[in-house]
Design goal:
The structure is a single chain. 45% of the residues lie in helices and 14% in strands. It has helices at 11-20, 25-39, 49-58, 74-83, 106-114, 123-126, 128-147, 174-184, 222-243; strands spanning 42-45, 63-67, 94-99, 117-120, 151-154, 190-197, 208-211.
Length: 244
Protein backbone atom coordinates (compact mmCIF):
# COMPACT_ATOMS: atom_id res chain seq x y z
CA UNK A 1 0.00 0.00 0.00
CA UNK A 2 1.61 3.27 -1.15
CA UNK A 3 1.90 5.88 1.60
CA UNK A 4 0.52 9.27 0.50
CA UNK A 5 2.31 12.46 1.49
CA UNK A 6 0.84 13.75 4.75
CA UNK A 7 0.03 17.31 3.71
CA UNK A 8 -3.15 19.26 4.29
CA UNK A 9 -3.86 19.67 0.56
CA UNK A 10 -3.90 15.87 0.32
CA UNK A 11 -6.07 15.18 3.38
CA UNK A 12 -8.77 13.11 1.64
CA UNK A 13 -6.20 10.66 0.29
CA UNK A 14 -4.34 10.68 3.62
CA UNK A 15 -7.42 9.70 5.62
CA UNK A 16 -8.50 7.12 3.04
CA UNK A 17 -5.09 5.52 3.61
CA UNK A 18 -5.32 5.60 7.41
CA UNK A 19 -8.85 4.21 7.30
CA UNK A 20 -7.33 1.05 5.76
CA UNK A 21 -3.78 0.97 7.12
CA UNK A 22 -2.90 -1.81 9.56
CA UNK A 23 0.49 -2.04 11.19
CA UNK A 24 2.30 -5.35 11.63
CA UNK A 25 1.15 -6.41 15.08
CA UNK A 26 4.15 -8.65 15.76
CA UNK A 27 6.59 -5.87 14.87
CA UNK A 28 4.63 -3.45 17.06
CA UNK A 29 4.81 -5.81 20.02
CA UNK A 30 8.56 -6.22 19.60
CA UNK A 31 8.99 -2.45 19.43
CA UNK A 32 6.87 -1.85 22.52
CA UNK A 33 8.84 -4.51 24.42
CA UNK A 34 12.09 -2.79 23.44
CA UNK A 35 10.73 0.58 24.61
CA UNK A 36 9.73 -0.99 27.94
CA UNK A 37 13.32 -2.18 28.46
CA UNK A 38 14.69 1.24 27.54
CA UNK A 39 12.37 3.60 29.42
CA UNK A 40 11.29 1.43 32.40
CA UNK A 41 8.36 3.56 33.64
CA UNK A 42 6.97 2.77 37.08
CA UNK A 43 3.28 1.98 36.60
CA UNK A 44 0.79 2.28 39.46
CA UNK A 45 -2.99 2.10 39.62
CA UNK A 46 -5.96 3.33 41.60
CA UNK A 47 -7.58 0.63 43.70
CA UNK A 48 -9.12 -2.05 41.49
CA UNK A 49 -8.14 -0.35 38.21
CA UNK A 50 -5.64 -2.99 37.14
CA UNK A 51 -8.15 -5.80 37.54
CA UNK A 52 -10.90 -3.80 35.82
CA UNK A 53 -8.69 -3.00 32.81
CA UNK A 54 -7.72 -6.65 32.54
CA UNK A 55 -11.42 -7.56 32.48
CA UNK A 56 -12.24 -4.93 29.85
CA UNK A 57 -9.43 -6.10 27.58
CA UNK A 58 -10.47 -9.74 28.05
CA UNK A 59 -14.06 -8.79 27.15
CA UNK A 60 -12.78 -6.97 24.02
CA UNK A 61 -14.26 -3.66 25.14
CA UNK A 62 -13.26 -0.64 23.04
CA UNK A 63 -11.04 1.80 24.91
CA UNK A 64 -10.18 5.49 24.61
CA UNK A 65 -6.91 6.15 26.43
CA UNK A 66 -6.31 9.79 27.39
CA UNK A 67 -2.85 10.88 28.53
CA UNK A 68 -1.41 14.24 29.59
CA UNK A 69 1.40 15.60 27.41
CA UNK A 70 4.72 16.67 28.92
CA UNK A 71 7.47 15.81 26.42
CA UNK A 72 8.01 14.76 22.81
CA UNK A 73 9.11 11.36 24.18
CA UNK A 74 5.72 10.76 25.85
CA UNK A 75 4.50 8.30 23.15
CA UNK A 76 7.49 6.07 23.89
CA UNK A 77 6.93 6.25 27.65
CA UNK A 78 3.25 5.43 27.18
CA UNK A 79 4.13 2.53 24.87
CA UNK A 80 6.51 1.19 27.52
CA UNK A 81 3.81 1.55 30.17
CA UNK A 82 1.28 -0.25 27.96
CA UNK A 83 3.66 -3.18 27.61
CA UNK A 84 4.03 -3.39 31.40
CA UNK A 85 0.27 -3.18 32.02
CA UNK A 86 -2.93 -5.13 31.27
CA UNK A 87 -3.14 -3.03 28.09
CA UNK A 88 -0.45 -5.21 26.47
CA UNK A 89 -2.95 -7.30 24.42
CA UNK A 90 -4.18 -4.07 22.76
CA UNK A 91 -0.74 -3.40 21.25
CA UNK A 92 -0.95 -3.61 17.47
CA UNK A 93 -4.62 -2.62 17.34
CA UNK A 94 -4.49 0.79 18.99
CA UNK A 95 -4.66 3.98 16.92
CA UNK A 96 -2.62 6.93 18.20
CA UNK A 97 -3.48 10.49 17.17
CA UNK A 98 -0.26 12.38 16.28
CA UNK A 99 0.52 15.79 14.81
CA UNK A 100 1.12 15.82 11.07
CA UNK A 101 4.73 17.05 11.41
CA UNK A 102 5.72 13.62 12.74
CA UNK A 103 4.80 12.04 9.40
CA UNK A 104 7.16 14.13 7.26
CA UNK A 105 10.53 12.40 7.68
CA UNK A 106 10.34 8.87 6.13
CA UNK A 107 12.19 6.98 8.88
CA UNK A 108 10.19 8.62 11.62
CA UNK A 109 6.95 8.07 9.72
CA UNK A 110 7.65 4.34 9.60
CA UNK A 111 7.91 4.34 13.38
CA UNK A 112 4.71 6.35 13.78
CA UNK A 113 2.86 4.11 11.33
CA UNK A 114 4.16 1.04 13.18
CA UNK A 115 2.68 2.45 16.40
CA UNK A 116 -0.69 2.95 14.72
CA UNK A 117 -0.50 6.70 14.12
CA UNK A 118 -3.29 8.75 12.56
CA UNK A 119 -2.18 12.27 11.55
CA UNK A 120 -3.85 15.37 12.95
CA UNK A 121 -3.63 18.70 11.10
CA UNK A 122 -3.65 21.28 13.88
CA UNK A 123 -5.23 24.69 13.67
CA UNK A 124 -2.23 26.26 15.42
CA UNK A 125 -0.09 25.22 12.43
CA UNK A 126 -2.44 25.63 9.48
CA UNK A 127 -5.26 27.89 10.69
CA UNK A 128 -8.57 26.77 12.17
CA UNK A 129 -10.61 27.40 9.03
CA UNK A 130 -8.13 25.56 6.84
CA UNK A 131 -8.16 22.39 8.96
CA UNK A 132 -11.93 22.21 9.53
CA UNK A 133 -12.72 19.62 6.84
CA UNK A 134 -9.58 17.59 7.59
CA UNK A 135 -10.46 17.59 11.28
CA UNK A 136 -13.89 16.17 10.55
CA UNK A 137 -12.36 13.45 8.38
CA UNK A 138 -9.83 12.61 11.11
CA UNK A 139 -12.63 12.22 13.67
CA UNK A 140 -14.70 10.08 11.29
CA UNK A 141 -11.72 7.81 10.56
CA UNK A 142 -10.86 7.52 14.26
CA UNK A 143 -14.44 6.58 15.15
CA UNK A 144 -14.67 4.08 12.30
CA UNK A 145 -11.39 2.43 13.31
CA UNK A 146 -12.79 1.97 16.81
CA UNK A 147 -16.00 0.52 15.37
CA UNK A 148 -13.87 -1.97 13.44
CA UNK A 149 -12.18 -3.18 16.61
CA UNK A 150 -9.31 -0.81 17.37
CA UNK A 151 -8.69 1.18 20.53
CA UNK A 152 -7.69 4.84 20.49
CA UNK A 153 -4.92 6.70 22.37
CA UNK A 154 -5.02 10.50 22.54
CA UNK A 155 -3.02 13.36 24.06
CA UNK A 156 -6.06 15.65 24.38
CA UNK A 157 -4.08 18.74 25.42
CA UNK A 158 -2.64 18.77 21.90
CA UNK A 159 0.74 20.22 22.87
CA UNK A 160 3.47 19.67 25.46
CA UNK A 161 2.96 21.29 28.85
CA UNK A 162 5.88 23.69 29.29
CA UNK A 163 4.30 25.71 32.11
CA UNK A 164 3.23 23.44 34.96
CA UNK A 165 3.48 19.66 34.34
CA UNK A 166 1.44 18.99 37.48
CA UNK A 167 -1.68 20.67 36.06
CA UNK A 168 -3.67 19.60 33.00
CA UNK A 169 -3.77 22.16 30.21
CA UNK A 170 -6.86 23.02 28.18
CA UNK A 171 -8.39 19.86 26.72
CA UNK A 172 -9.49 20.29 23.12
CA UNK A 173 -12.99 19.42 21.95
CA UNK A 174 -11.79 16.73 19.52
CA UNK A 175 -11.86 13.85 22.00
CA UNK A 176 -15.47 14.68 22.90
CA UNK A 177 -16.56 14.69 19.26
CA UNK A 178 -14.71 11.44 18.52
CA UNK A 179 -16.28 9.68 21.48
CA UNK A 180 -19.74 10.95 20.45
CA UNK A 181 -19.20 9.70 16.89
CA UNK A 182 -18.11 6.30 18.17
CA UNK A 183 -21.36 6.04 20.11
CA UNK A 184 -23.36 7.00 17.02
CA UNK A 185 -21.76 4.00 15.33
CA UNK A 186 -23.23 1.75 18.01
CA UNK A 187 -20.14 1.30 20.20
CA UNK A 188 -19.90 2.31 23.87
CA UNK A 189 -16.22 3.09 24.52
CA UNK A 190 -14.66 3.10 27.97
CA UNK A 191 -12.36 5.97 28.96
CA UNK A 192 -9.02 5.20 30.61
CA UNK A 193 -7.08 8.20 31.94
CA UNK A 194 -3.35 7.79 32.29
CA UNK A 195 -1.23 10.28 34.24
CA UNK A 196 2.40 10.86 33.32
CA UNK A 197 5.03 12.59 35.47
CA UNK A 198 8.81 12.83 35.11
CA UNK A 199 9.25 14.36 38.55
CA UNK A 200 10.75 17.72 39.53
CA UNK A 201 13.93 17.04 37.50
CA UNK A 202 11.96 16.02 34.37
CA UNK A 203 14.00 12.84 33.99
CA UNK A 204 12.57 11.38 30.78
CA UNK A 205 13.82 7.86 31.58
CA UNK A 206 12.35 7.78 35.07
CA UNK A 207 8.64 8.27 34.57
CA UNK A 208 5.79 7.68 36.97
CA UNK A 209 2.68 6.46 35.15
CA UNK A 210 -0.61 6.22 37.02
CA UNK A 211 -3.70 4.57 35.55
CA UNK A 212 -6.99 5.50 37.13
CA UNK A 213 -10.22 3.53 37.38
CA UNK A 214 -11.84 3.20 33.92
CA UNK A 215 -14.84 5.45 33.27
CA UNK A 216 -17.47 3.16 31.82
CA UNK A 217 -20.32 5.66 31.44
CA UNK A 218 -19.62 8.80 29.42
CA UNK A 219 -21.98 11.78 29.07
CA UNK A 220 -23.94 12.22 25.85
CA UNK A 221 -22.76 15.66 24.71
CA UNK A 222 -19.20 16.23 23.40
CA UNK A 223 -18.63 19.23 25.70
CA UNK A 224 -19.61 17.19 28.75
CA UNK A 225 -17.36 14.34 27.59
CA UNK A 226 -14.46 16.81 27.37
CA UNK A 227 -15.09 17.91 30.96
CA UNK A 228 -15.13 14.29 32.09
CA UNK A 229 -11.84 13.68 30.27
CA UNK A 230 -10.20 16.77 31.78
CA UNK A 231 -11.28 15.83 35.31
CA UNK A 232 -10.17 12.23 34.83
CA UNK A 233 -6.80 13.27 33.43
CA UNK A 234 -6.13 15.62 36.34
CA UNK A 235 -6.97 12.87 38.82
CA UNK A 236 -4.61 10.47 37.02
CA UNK A 237 -1.88 13.12 36.84
CA UNK A 238 -2.24 13.78 40.58
CA UNK A 239 -1.74 10.05 41.12
CA UNK A 240 1.38 9.99 38.95
CA UNK A 241 2.90 12.98 40.76
CA UNK A 242 2.12 11.47 44.18
CA UNK A 243 3.63 8.13 43.19
CA UNK A 244 6.86 9.59 41.80
Amino acid sequence: MDRPAVILENDETVYDFYLRHQQNRQVARLAYAALARRFKPRVSYSEGAREEIRRLVYDDTRLIIAVNHVSETDPYTVAAAAWASPLRPAIGRTRVLAKDELFQEPKQRKRIDMMGGIPVFRGKNHGMRAVSAAGNRMMDVSAERVRRGDDLAVFPEGTCNLVDPTQIQHVGSGIGHIAARIRKLGVEPVLICMGLSYGPSQNLKSASVYIDQPITELPDKPLHIVRTVADGMQKALDGAVAAY
